[in-house]
Design brief:
The chain is α+β, with helices and mostly antiparallel strands and about 650 residues long. Helix 5 (about 515-525) crosses helix 6. The termini are far apart. About 55% of the residues are buried.
């Protein structure tokens, strides 16, 4: 028998067949938590407190080390851990047994995702503020290849046989496939969803976004990608008819709102190449019972992890404090499933519910709704990791904790739900979470952080909306979209850095503080109820605690930057008249382009906040400067091409 196997494996490799993982618990995607080689421990990163923790599964004991630099994602290569240090522009190499740092490798601006091959010979890292992905030889830690991937690349998935790498970007729903054999790249197309706006026959196309860590099934046959589909084009009113907002009217997993969580699955062929024509999107909508309440699960998914047998995709629903279990289709010819994928085909009829409003649409056979089963948690999961075939743990970097998930119950219910043609959506309550650290953020910052990320705290939003502050201000920054608020297009401003220093905090409204804006938005558009002033100030404390973006050109000192600064400060160009140093805003409002009272935004970190202007109409800083040639917003009409380039260089250095 052994001789037969030995002859078959090279033949399969020669033919390009999927061989899959040897260790089905090995992470195929970037992750906040991974298992040890013997599967007896879980390693998890906690960025906000600079922590790397080792959790012993048998004893439930925790060992923690401080790893300065905002440890963001972790991967394992044999008995070494690779940890991205986002603020240090570095990758830490840590001994998994001792938790001692062996070396630190400088890689580039804001490294985010990291993934390794199962052999532990190479790693891939996203440099999110450098628009690059690098390949590292783990014997020397030399960079062997680089690829330019735009729109802030963050998340990674590596095909088990090492032939394909998938890169998810923060903006523009950009999913990039890199053929690791040829080095060639391609941007993968997204399915489109058309919908009808409320009280009209206007067709609105929902906008897709990628929202978290993807994963490839252990057999190497299916890629799963966390996504969010939003209606940012229909108008949103600040005035609500009912106290707390009228955002309800979601039932049975059949209705979709303005924010629609989803998982896109992409089959991979025998050569590890994506078959986008066969891709499917499943909307993750359901309910869980939490403290005698039944909040709706519909916030954005933060990560996907496959069960070791590859039959179930487990989805971390960060803002909903839940995990969704979604059964995998059985065959490609759709003969053994209801519609050939996760969930089922559904017609959805959306109610007009303010910020949570959704369009009326028929979801075709590439779109399903109603994920199969849900597990309610006490924490906000950002990562999921198996330590054996049926033991699943949910990691929360927000609460610095790890929590067991009833995987067996969820899987069995999901399978039964499919057999019963989705007559119900079962839910389970999770066990208590276990702390991964005895350190914490300041109390006001931590409380504000939880409120900021929660889509089930009724003080912040109606649970049927599926919206939290972090939905639009993704990662405490921006989603890169423009929304229609009260009839006006408004680009989502980034909240990175100490925003209170650069008030006013909105584009138009007379809002004097971050706390005031938190009160206004949560209690009107988001449909929250009874948020106190003190709690709003906690949100302000969290927003002001967050740091500025570390863009690759930040602080650059070049001749072009020096020339650009001189142009910026010229009286005839007049940039500094409204954007004076050191905050680069006058804190005032101005009439321009026929619009009254447009607030002056700070230019600190402006390189990372595209698109630009309150309308989001300028895709680049150069586009802003071209707009200013008309003289209504400074005057760049006299500048040469070289001077325009120099001015852009200066702006990118701020």
């Amino acid at each position: 028998m052994s001789r037969t196997v030995a002859s078959v494996v090279p033949l399969l490799a020669l033919l390009g067949c999927n061989q899959g993982l040897d260790d089905n618990l090995f992470a195929t995607g970037s992750a906040t938590a991974v298992t040890s080689a013997d599967h007896k421990s879980v390693f998890a990163v906690n960025p906000a407190i600079d922590g790397l923790s080792r959790f012993d599964v048998d004893t439930e004991s925790v060992t923690e080390v401080v790893l300065e630099g905002e440890p963001t994602r972790v991967a394992r290569a044999g008995d070494r851990l690779l940890v991205t240090l986002r603020t240090e522009r570095a990758l830490a190499v840590v001994d998994a047994n001792t938790l001692e740092v062996e070396r630190t490798v400088q890689v580039g601006a804001e490294p985010f995702g990291v993934v390794t091959d199962e052999a532990g010979s190479r790693a891939f890292v996203t440099l999110s503020q450098q628009d690059e992905v690098i390949e590292l030889d783990l014997s020397s830690f030399e960079v062997t290849r680089r690829w330019t991937v735009t729109q802030e690349p963050r998340w990674l998935a590596l095909e088990p046989d090492g032939r394909s790498l998938f890169v998810g970007s923060t903006f523009g729903a950009r999913l990039t496939h890199i053929d690791l054999r040829s080095g060639e790249m391609q941007q993968l197309p997204m399915p489109s969803v058309d919908s009808t706006a409320p009280d009209s026959e206007v067709i609105v196309e929902l906008t897709p976004r990628l929202t978290g860590d993807p994963a490839i099934s252990p057999d190497g046959e299916v890629l799963a990608v966390p996504m969010l589909w939003v209606d940012n084009l229909s108008d949103i009113s600040s005035e609500m008819d009912e106290p707390g907002g009228s955002y309800g009217s979601v039932s049975g997993g059949e209705r979709f709102g303005r924010f629609n969580a989803a998982v896109m699955t992409v089959p991979l062929d025998s050569k590890g190449q994506p078959e986008m024509d066969e891709s499917e999107v499943t909307f993750v909508v359901g309910f869980v019972e939490l403290e005698e309440l039944f909040p709706t699960v519909r916030s954005y998914p933060a990560a996907v992890t496959w069960s070791p047998d590859g039959d179930v995709a487990m989805v971390a629903m960060e803002g909903s404090q839940a995990v969704a279990a979604m059964t995998r289709r059985i065959s490609k010819d759709h003969s053994d499933d209801l519609n050939g994928g996760f969930g089922r085909t559904a017609m959805v009829d959306f109610a007009d519910t303010g910020f949570s409003r959704g369009p009326e649409s028929i979801i075709d056979d590439r779109f399903g709704s109603n994920a199969s089963a849900f597990v309610g948690l006490s924490t906000m999961p950002q990562g999921l990791v198996f330590t054996d075939d049926s033991t699943l743990w949910a990691h929360s970097g927000i609460q610095h904790s790890i929590e067991p998930v009833d995987f067996d119950g969820a899987r069995d219910a999901a399978r039964e739900n499919r057999r019963q043609e989705f007559e119900s959506t079962p839910s389970f309550q999770g066990a208590d979470a276990l702390a991964l650290s005895d350190r914490a953020l300041p109390g006001d910052v931590q409380t504000g952080r939880r409120l900021f990320f929660s889509a089930v705290d009724t003080r912040m939003s109606t649970t049927s909306a599926g919206v939290s502050c972090s939905t639009c201000h993704f990662d405490g920054r921006t989603d890169g979209l423009t929304w229609n608020l009260d009839g006006l297009p408004r680009q989502v401003p980034s909240l990175a850095g100490q925003v209170s220093l650069t008030e006013p905090v909105t584009w138009f409204d007379e809002v004097s503080s971050v706390a005031d804006e938190a009160m206004i938005t949560s209690q009107s558009r988001m449909g929250g109820d009874d948020l106190s002033r003190t709690q709003a100030e906690y949100i302000e404390a969290y927003v002001d605690w967050s740091r500025d973006v570390d863009h690759k050109d930040k602080g650059a000192q070049t001749e072009a930057v020096t020339r650009g600064q001189a142009i910026f400060e010229r009286e005839d160009v007049a940039c500094s008249s409204c954007h004076p140093a050191p905050l680069y805003t006058d804190g005032d409002k101005h009439d321009m382009y026929g619009v009254n009272g447009v607030a002056t935004p700070s230019l600190i970190g402006v390189a990372a906040t595209a698109p630009y202007l309150h309308t989001g109409s300028a895709p680049s800083l150069r586009g802003v400067l071209e707009t200013a040639r008309g003289g209504e917003m400074g005057d760049t009409s006299s500048l040469s091409e070289q001077e325009m380039d120099d001015l852009v260089a200066y702006l990118r250095s701020l």
